[in-house]
Amino acid sequence: MRLLNVSPAKNVLEAVFSDVMSSSVITSDEREQIQNVLFNSYLDDDEYAIINRLVYHVRRGWVTVIE
């Protein structure tokens, strides 16, 4: 059986995405986690897609940014 190699950055982004979508709110801690991933990791297309989906939801007003 072969296991997939999932990057730590993808795990963080998927967890943040799940939390944000379930609450319709993105906190400053979650934004900081995304910034850390962006600054400290090489991201693949799937990881950029997660970030783009989050930004899209914020722009549409479906997710509220709180401090």
Question: Could you characterize what this model shows?
Answer:
With 67 residues, the chain is mainly α. It has one domain (8-65). 67% of the residues lie in helices and 6% in strands. A two-stranded parallel ribbon has the order 1-2. Helix 1 (8-23) packs antiparallel against helix 2 and helix 1 (8-23) runs parallel beside helix 3. The N and C termini lie far apart (45 Å).
Question: Strands, helices and their partners?
Answer:
Elements: H1 8-23, E1 25-26, H2 28-40, H3 45-60, E2 64-65
Parallel strand pairs: 1-2
Helix pairs in contact: 1-2, 1-3
What level of helicity do the residues show? 55-70%
Largest sheet: 2 strands, parallel
Radius of gyration, CA atoms, in whole angstroms: 12 Å
The average pLDDT score comes to 90
| Strand composition percent | 5-15%
Reading side by side through the largest sheet, how are the strands ordered? 1-2
**Could you give the order of the helices and strands?**
HEHHE
- Catalogue the unreliable spans: none
User: What is the approximate shape?
Assistant: globular
- Quickly give the structural class: mainly alpha
What is the helix tally?
A: 3
DSSP strand count: 2
Counting copies of identical and different chains, the oligomeric state is single chain
